[in-house]
Write a structure and sequence with these properties.
heterodimer; A: mainly alpha; 10 strands; 59% helix; globular; B: 219 residues; Phosphatidylinositol glycan anchor biosynthesis class F (chain B); transmembrane helix (chain B); transmembrane (chain B); GPI-anchor biosynthesis (chain B)
C-alpha cells in the first residue's frame, strides 16, 4: 500500500511542474516580444529654462516685459477648463436646428460669445491624438508630445510625468497653479499645485461628485485672486457618456450645467485673463473612447478673453488644430518657456495683437521662430539619444529649418533697415511664416510616424521562443511517458540547464557591472532550458525507436501507417491552420467573432463526416445485409447527430450576444449587453429579470441533478452540503443583487441609502460564499458516500486475505471495495445488507464532480461580473461545453484508445473558448472592455489597482477561464459516460474474472487503477492544450511583427496581440489550476482508500 | 468496357460543365440586364434548372444505374413523388445548415434558400438520379470503398467538391475589398459552382488515373 501511495504521489508534482515550466517558457517569449513590440518613446530628461540660448534676436529682446521668458507675456492669468469628452458636436451651436438631440445646442454661451465678440472668442475643432484615454490626453496637453500605445495599459496607475511639461514650466517660473477636479492629475503632477481640490475619478457611474466639488470651489477661488493659472477638470460629461451614452436626457442636463458654469465663470473673469475650454477627447455613439475613430478624436476647444485676441473675424467653418498645439501657445501667451519635448505648433492668430497687419505678422513670425528653434533643439537632442527617427528625414527637416532661419535673419535685418515697403514685406513675411509652418508640421508628422518604435531583435527572439515552445509542447505531448527517466531528462535537466544559463548571465552582468535586465535573463534562461530539453530528447531518440510497444503513433509502424496517422492529424490541424492564418488579415481579425463559430461548426461536421467515411458509424455488415447491399447504422448515430445539431444551434444562438467593432459600421451591438437598469419599459425589465433568475435556478438544478445521478450528492460532507444549500443561497444573493442594481436610480426615494448598502453587500456575499465553496473543495474534494457494511476489517470479500504485500495485490482491492449504485435508498439498503462490502456512491465520478462544482462556482462569480442578460450566454456556454463533451465521448470510444485526448477535441474546446469570448460581449479592443465589472461590490474608488484589474480581467476572459479549468473533463468524460456504453468489450485478465460485474462500472476508477497512465494522460492533455493556445498566440505574434507598419496595426493587430497574450496567460494559469484540482482529488482519493484499508 | 464507360462519363460531365457555362452566358441574350453578379437570383434559378434538367435527361439517356426491376407506372409515379419530397427536404436541410453556419436568419431569406436549392441540385439531385430515393444506398456510397461503379465514384467526387467549394466560398466574405461578389450568397454559390465544375472534370481523370486500383464490388 505504502508503495502505491508513494508511487502515485511521485507522479503528481512532475506533471504540474512540467506544465508550469512550459507555461513559463511561453511567458518569457511573450514578455520578450512585448518588450520589443510595445516600446514607449524615450522621454528626455532635459527641460527648457528662461535662460536658454534660444532667445529671439536682440532688438526684440529689449522689449520683453518683466516676468516674460522667450516671448512677451500677453496674459498674466489663465483659466483652463477641461470638460472630459467634450465632443465638437456638443460645443457647436446651430440656431437653425428645430429639434436638437439631447447633446446638441446645449452650450449656448460659447455661441453667444463667439457671435457677439468675434475678436474675443473662437471655437476650434480640437483633434486629439490616439490613444484617446484621459491620462494620455492629459500627458499630451501638458508636454506637447505624443504618448505611445503602451501607456494605455497604465491608465489607472498613472505615474508622475517625468518629461518637461507646461505645469513644471509654470511652477518653475513662479506661477501659482490651482487645480480642481479629476484626481488623475494628482498622480501625474505630484506636489506641483499651489492649491488643489481632487475628486475621485474612477467610478464611471458617478456623474456628479467631481463636478459638484469643482463648482463648490470654482467661484470662490476665482474671486480670491490667489492664483495665476487655474485648471478645472470636469468629468460629468464623460461619465454620463459611459453610463448612458450621448443620446440621453441625462447628457442634456449635464451639458446645460456646464453651460451655466461657463456663463457665470465668464462674468467672474478679469481683463488680463485668458479662458480656454477644451475637451480632452470625443466619444463614440455609445459614449466610449480610447481608439482613434473620427468621433473619438474630434474634441472642441474654445478660446476667450475680455481683451481682443484675434486680428480678424472667425472663418466660416471652425479651424481644426491638433491638441499638442495648445502647449506652445499657452506657454508663450503666459510668458513661460515652451516645454522641452513639445512638437506642437503655436496658434499664430492668438499672437496677432491690436497692431496693423505688418506688426501682427512680425509678432507671429517671432513666435514661430521661437517654436521652430525649440522643436529643432528637441529633435537634435532626441536623435542623439535614440535612432528611431529616420536619418534622411531628419536631414530634410534640418535643411528646411536652417534655410528658414537664414531667411528670417535676412528679413529681420532688412526690416530693421526699413528697406522693404509693406506690400512686399507682407508677402515675404507670409512666405516665411509658411515655411516655418511647413517645418513644424513636417517635424510633427515625422515624429507621429515613427513613434511606434520597435526592437526587431527582441521581437524575433520572442517569436522564436514562442515557436520553439510550441514545438516542445508538440513533441513532449507525443512522447510523454510516465517514467522517471522521462521526467529526469525532460524536466529536471532542462531546468538545470536554464538555471545554469541564468546564473552564467548573472555572473557576466556582475563582472561587466551592467544593469541586470530581468526580462533578458529570464528569456535566456528559457532558451537554455529549451536547448536542454531538445538535447536530451535527441539523446533519447535512438533509444526510443528501438523500443517497440507504447510508442506514439507517428514514430512507429511502417510508412503507410505513418502517413495515415499524419492524415488523421491533418484535418483538425487544418482547421487550426485556418484559424491561425486568419490572424494575419485585419478583416478576419475584425470578423473573428463570426470566423470562430464557422470553424468550430466545420470541425465538428468534418469529424462526423470523416467518421462516417471511415465506416466507424456503421455496424459491421452481417452476411444478410451484405447481400442486400445495405449497411445499417449503430443506434448511436442518431444520438450523435442530435448532439451535432444541438451544438450548431448553440453556436448560432451565441452569435446574438456579440459586441460591435467600429470597423463594421452597419453592426448593431446586441441588446443583451446593456444592463437591465437601462431598459425603459418596466414590463420588459421584469420579464428579463425573471428569466435570468429562472435560468440561474435551472443551472443549479441541472448541476445538482447531474451530481445526484452519479451519486455524488449523498454524503454529508461539508462540500456536498454546500452544493445542496450553498448553491441556492448564491443564486439568491445574485438575484437580489440584480434586483437592486437594475432598479431605477431615483424611484426608490428614501430607500436609496439601503440600496446603496445592498449593492455592496450582495456581491460580497456571493464572493464570500463562492470562496467558501472553493476552499471546501480544496480541503475535502471527496463527494463520496461510503456505506460500510463490513463487520470487521478482515471481512472484505477478497481472495487475497490479509494485508496486500505488493502493489499488484492492492490494485485488486480497489475494484472490490468500490461499488457503484443508482437505485433508491431502500434498494441499496436491501442489497447492501446481503453482502458485506463497502458501497461507495459517487466514487466513479469523483474527479468530474469536483471539476463540475468548481466550474459552477466560477460560473456564478463570472455571471455576477457581467450584465444580467449575459447569463443567457453563459447558459449557452455550459450547454455547448456539455454537448461537446458528449460528442467527444462516443467518438473517443470509436477513435482512440482511452487515456488519450485526440487533437480535434482539444482544438474544438479552444475554439469554443474563443467563440464565447465574443459571445459574452467582448471584442479584442480597448473600448469594448466592460469597466463596470470593477464596481461589482465596490461603491467608491478602489484603493489599489490590483482588485479592479482582477475583476475586469475575470470579466474579459470569462470563457477562457471556464474552458481552461474544465479542460481535464475532456479526459474524464469518456470514463464518466462509460456506463451508458458499457457494452464495449474489454480484454480482462483471468485473475479478475469474478469481478467482471463490478468492473463494468469502474468509470473514473479505471484512471485510478493505472496512475502512471493517468498522470501521463493529464500531462499530454495539458501539453496539447498549451500547444493549440501557443499556436494561436504564435500566429498573433507573427502577425503583429510582420505587419507592424500596417495601417491597422494599432487598431487591430496590437490590441488583438495584447488580448491574445493576456488570454494565453489566463488560460494557462487556469489550466494549471484545473489539473492541480484533479491532482488534489487524486490525493484525497488515495487517503480515502488508505483509511478504508486501515479500518 | 471500362474505357468506354469512362469516356461516356467524361462526355456527360463535360456536357454538364458546358451547360453551367451556357447558363451564365446565354440568358443575357434573352433577359435585359442579366449578369451573374447583378441579377444573382435569376442566375441561381437558371443554373439550378439547367443542371437539373440536363442531369435528368442524361440519366434517362445513359441509364447508368441500370435498374433491373420491372416497374409499373404507379411505382414510377410514387418513385418520382418520393424524389420530389426528398429534394425539397434536402433544400430545407441545406437552408437550415447554412443558417446555422452563420447566414442571416431573417434578411435575404430568398437568397439563402436559392443557394440551398443550388447546392441540392449539385448534390442531392445527382444522388436521386443515380441511386433513387434510397437513403441506405446513399449512406453506402458516401463511405470508404462504398462506390460500386465509376458513376458512383464520380458522384462522390462532385458532391464533395461542390460542398467544399461552397465552404471555401465563405472565406472572402469578411474581407474588406468591397467587391460585388463578396455579397452574400454570391461568393458561396460561385464557390459551389466552381467546385462542382472542378469535380466534374476531376472525376473522370481521377478514375482514369486510378482505374487499376479501383475494383468495384458487384452487387
Amino acid at each position: 500500500m505504502s508503495l502505491r501511495v508513494l508511487l502515485s504521489r511521485m507522479q503528481r508534482w512532475p506533471v504540474v511542474l512540467f506544465l508550469a515550466w512550459v507555461c513559463l517558457l511561453f511567458f518569457a517569449g511573450i514578455g520578450l516580444f512585448m518588450s520589443g513590440f510595445l516600446l514607449t518613446r524615450i522621454e528626455l530628461a532635459s527641460s527648457s529654462s528662461c535662460s536658454d540660448p534660444l532667445v529671439p534676436p536682440p532688438w526684440e529682446r529689449q522689449s520683453l516685459p518683466p516676468g516674460s521668458c522667450w516671448a512677451p507675456q500677453r496674459f498674466s492669468k489663465a483659466v483652463l477648463i477641461i470638460i472630459d469628452a467634450l465632443h465638437f458636436e456638443f460645443a457647436r451651436f446651430d440656431p437653425a436646428k428645430v429639434s436638437p438631440l439631447p447633446y446638441e445646442n446645449k452650450l449656448g454661451v460659447l455661441y453667444q460669445l463667439a457671435t457677439s465678440q468675434p475678436r474675443h472668442a473662437r471655437l476650434y475643432r480640437f483633434r486629439a491624438d490616439p490613444p484617446t484615454a484621459t491620462m494620455q490626453r492629459i500627458k499630451g496637453l501638458t508636454t506637447g508630445s505624443l504618448p505611445t500605445f503602451i501607456d494605455v495599459g497604465s491608465n489607472f496607475a498613472s505615474y508622475a510625468i517625468q518629461e518637461d511639461n507646461l505645469l513644471a514650466q509654470l511652477v518653475q517660473n513662479g506661477r501659482r497653479v490651482v487645480f480642481m477636479g479629476d484626481d488623475t492629475w494628482e498622480g501625474l503632477f505630484p506636489k506641483k499645485f499651489f492649491r488643489s481640490y481632487f475628486f475621485p475619478s474612477f467610478n464611471v457611474k458617478d456623474l456628479h461628485t467631481v463636478d459638484d466639488g469643482i463648482l463648490q470651489h470654482l467661484y470662490p477661488t476665482v474671486d480670491s485672486g490667489e492664483w495665476d493659472v487655474l485648471i478645472a477638470h470636469f468629468l460629468g460629461v464623460d461619465h454620463c457618456g459611459h453610463k448612458h451614452g450621448p443620446d440621453h436626457p441625462e447628457m442634456a442636463k449635464k451639458l446645460t450645467q456646464m453651460n451655466e458654469m461657463l456663463r457665470s465663470l465668464v462674468d467672474h473673469l478679469g481683463n488680463d485673463t485668458l479662458l480656454l475650454v477644451a475637451g480632452d477627447h470625443g466619444m463614440t455613439e455609445t459614449g466610449d473612447h480610447g481608439g482613434d475613430s473620427e468621433k473619438e478624436v474630434n474634441a472642441a476647444l474654445f478660446v476667450y478673453s475680455r481683451t481682443p485676441l484675434f486680428g480678424s473675424g472667425p472663418p466660416e467653418e471652425p479651424e481644426t488644430i491638433p491638441q499638442v498645439n495648445l502647449v506652445p501657445t499657452v506657454a508663450l501667451l503666459l510668458g513661460v518657456p515652451i516645454p522641452y519635448s513639445n512638437i506642437g505648433e503655436v496658434m499664430a492668430e492668438l499672437f496677432s495683437g491690436d497692431g496693423d497687419t505688418v506688426s501682427a505678422a512680425l509678432q507671429q513670425l517671432s513666435v514661430y521662430h521661437i517654436n521652430a528653434k525649440q522643436v529643432d533643439r528637441f529633435l537634435q537632442s532626441y536623435s542623439l539619444v535614440a535612432q528611431d527617427l529616420p536619418a534622411e528625414q531628419l536631414q530634410h527637416l534640418q535643411e528646411l529649418f536652417s534655410s528658414a532661419v537664414e531667411e528670417h535673419t535676412q528679413l529681420l535685418a532688412q526690416v530693421q533697415g526699413t528697406m522693404l515697403v509693406p506690400p512686399e514685406l507682407e508677402s515675404r513675411l507670409g512666405g516665411l511664416i509658411g515655411r516655418f509652418q511647413r517645418y513644424l508640421r513636417e517635424a510633427r508628422a515625422v515624429c507621429t510616424q515613427s513613434w511606434a518604435r520597435f526592437h526587431p531583435l527582441r521581437m524575433v527572439g520572442g517569436c522564436i521562443l514562442i515557436a520553439s515552445s510550441c514545438l516542445l509542447c508538440y513533441m513532449a505531448s507525443e512522447l510523454a511517458a510516465s517514467s522517471h527517466s522521462f521526467y529526469r531528462s525532460c524536466l529536471l535537466y532542462p531546468l538545470l540547464w536554464g538555471l545554469v544559463g541564468a546564473a552564467l548571465l548573472g555572473l557576466a552582468h556582475v563582472f561587466t557591472q551592467e544593469g541586470l535586465d530581468l526580462l533578458l535573463v529570464s528569456s535566456w534562461a528559457a532558451a537554455a532550458s529549451q536547448l536542454g530539453f531538445f538535447w536530451h530528447w535527441w539523446g533519447q531518440h535512438p533509444k526510443r525507436t528501438r523500443l517497440a510497444g507504447s510508442q506514439p503513433p507517428l514514430a512507429s509502424g511502417g510508412p503507410r501507417q505513418r502517413l495515415r496517422a499524419w492524415l488523421g492529424l491533418a484535418f483538425p490541424m487544418g482547421i487550426l491552420f485556418f484559424r491561425c492564418g486568419a490572424m494575419f488579415s485585419d478583416s478576419f481579425v475584425v470578423a473573428e467573432a463570426r470566423v470562430t463559430p464557422f470553424l468550430l461548426a466545420s470541425l465538428v461536421m468534418l469529424l462526423v463526416g470523416k467518421l462516417h467515411w471511415d465506416g466507424r458509424l456503421t455496424v459491421p455488415e452481417g452476411p444478410k445485409q451484405q447481400l442486400l447491399g445495405f449497411s445499417s447504422y449503430r443506434r448511436e448515430i442518431w444520438y450523435l447527430l442530435c448532439l451535432v445539431a444541438m451544438l450548431l444551434v448553440c453556436v448560432r444562438l451565441s452569435s446574438f450576444f456579440h459586441q460591435c467593432r467600429e470597423e463594421i459600421p452597419q453592426c448593431r451591438p446586441s441588446v443583451f449587453l446593456s444592463p437591465l437598469a437601462s431598459l425603459r419599459s418596466t414590463r420588459a425589465k421584469n420579464l428579463f429579470y425573471l428569466l435570468c433568475v429562472a435560468l440561474l435556478a435551472g443551472l443549479v438544478y441541472a448541476v445538482q441533478s447531474w451530481l445526484r445521478h452519479y451519486g455524488n450528492l449523498n454524503s454529508s460532507d461539508p462540500l456536498v452540503l454546500f452544493v445542496r444549500w450553498g448553491f441556492p443561497l448564491v443564486v439568491l444573493c445574485i438575484a437580489c443583487y440584480w434586483a437592486v442594481a437594475s432598479s431605477a436610480d431615483d424611484s426608490l426615494g428614501k430607500l436609496q441609502e439601503l440600496v446603496q448598502v445592498a449593492v455592496i453587500v450582495f456581491p460580497w456575499a456571493v464572493y464570500g460564499l463562492a470562496s467558501v465553496g472553493l476552499l471546501l473543495l480544496l480541503c475535502n474534494p471527496m463527494t463520496v458516500f461510503a456505506k460500510d457494511t463490513r463487520e470487521s476489517a478482515g471481512s472484505i470479500v477478497t481472495p487475497y486475505l490479509g494485508v496486500p504485500s505488493s502493489e499488484v495485490d492492492f490494485l485488486h482491492v480497489i475494484p472490490q471495495i468500490y461499488k457503484r449504485m443508482q437505485e433508491s435508498q431502500k434498494n441499496r439498503l436491501e442489497r447492501g445488507s446481503c453482502r458485506a462490502t463497502v458501497a461507495a456512491y459517487g466514487l466513479g465520478s469523483v474527479y468530474s464532480a469536483a471539476l463540475v462544482i468548481a466550474l459552477t462556482l466560477l460560473g456564478f462569480l463570472l455571471m455576477l461580473l457581467h450584465s444580467e442578460r449575459l447569463s443567457f450566454a453563459f447558459l449557452l456556454l455550459f450547454m455547448e461545453a456539455f454537448v461537446l463533451l458528449h460528442i467527444h465521448t462516443p467518438v473517443a470510444g470509436l477513435l482512440m484508445p482511452p487515456f488519450s485526448v485526440p487533437w480535434y477535441a482539444v482544438i474544438s474546446w479552444i475554439l469554443a473558448a474563443s467563440q464565447f469570448f465574443y459571445s459574452t460581449g467582448h471584442q479584442p479592443i480597448f473600448p469594448a472592455i466592460h469597466w463596470n465589472a470593477a464596481f461589482v461590490g465596490f461603491h467608491l474608488d478602489h484603493s489599489t489597482n490590483f482588485l479592479p484589474a482582477v475583476l475586469v480581467g475575470a470579466n474579459t476572459f470569462a470563457s477562457h477561464i471556464l474552458f481552461a479549468v474544465g479542460c481535464p473533463l475532456l479526459l474524464l468524460w469518456p470514463f464518466v459516460c462509460e456506463m451508458s456504453s458499457s457494452q464495449k468489450k474489454k480484454p480482462k485478465k483471468e485473475s479478475r474474472e469474478e469481478l467482471q460485474e463490478v468492473e463494468e462500472h469502474m468509470m473514473e476508477m479505471r484512471l485510478r487503477e493505472s496512475p502512471e497512465k493517468f498522470s501521463t494522460a493529464l500531462l499530454r492533455l495539458g501539453l496539447k492544450y498549451l500547444f493549440v493556445l501557443g499556436a494561436q498566440l504564435l500566429a498573433c505574434v507573427c502577425a503583429a511583427m510582420i505587419l507592424r507598419r500596417h495601417l491597422m496595426v494599432w487598431k487591430v493587430f496590437a490590441p488583438k496581440f495584447l488580448f491574445e497574450s493576456l488570454g494565453f496567460v489566463v488560460s494557462s494559469i487556469c489550466l494549471l489550476l484545473g489539473i492541480s484540482l484533479v491532482m488534489r482529488v487524486d490525493c484525497a482519493v488515495s487517503t480515502w482508500f488508505s483509511q478504508l484499508r486501515l479500518r | 468496357m471500362r474505357e468506354a464507360e469512362i469516356r461516356r462519363l467524361l462526355a456527360a460531365n463535360l456536357l454538364c460543365a458546358v451547360s453551367i457555362i451556357l447558363a451564365a452566358l446565354v440568358p443575357a441574350f434573352f433577359l435585359d440586364g442579366f449578369s451573374v453578379l447583378g441579377t444573382h437570383l435569376t442566375w441561381l434559378c437558371v443554373c439550378s434548372v439547367c443542371v437539373a434538367t440536363l442531369n435528368i435527361i442524361l440519366h434517362l439517356v445513359l441509364k447508368p444505374s441500370q435498374s433491373p426491376k420491372r416497374s409499373s407506372f404507379a411505382h414510377k409515379i410514387s418513385r418520382f413523388l418520393k424524389c420530389c419530397i426528398y429534394f425539397f427536404m434536402s433544400c430545407i436541410l441545406f437552408h437550415a445548415i447554412i443558417v446555422l453556419y452563420g447566414a442571416p436568419l431573417i434578411e435575404s431569406v430568398t437568397e439563402t434558400f436559392l443557394f440551398a436549392v443550388l447546392l441540392s441540385t449539385f448534390t442531392t439531385l445527382q444522388c436521386l438520379c443515380l441511386l433513387g430515393p434510397n437513403v441506405q444506398a446513399w449512406i453506402r456510397v458516401f463511405s470508404k470503398n462504398g462506390a460500386m461503379s465509376i458513376w458512383e465514384s464520380s458522384l462522390q467526387i462532385t458532391t464533395v467538391c461542390s460542398i467544399l467549394g461552397a465552404w471555401f466560398g465563405a472565406f472572402p466574405i469578411p474581407l474588406d475589398w468591397d467587391r460585388p461578389w463578396q455579397v452574400w450568397p454570391i461568393s458561396c454559390s460561385l464557390g459551389a459552382t466552381f467546385g462542382y465544375m472542378a469535380g466534374l472534370i476531376i472525376a473522370p481523370l481521377w478514375i482514369h488515373w486510378n482505374r487499376k486500383q479501383l475494383t468495384y464490388k458487384s452487387r
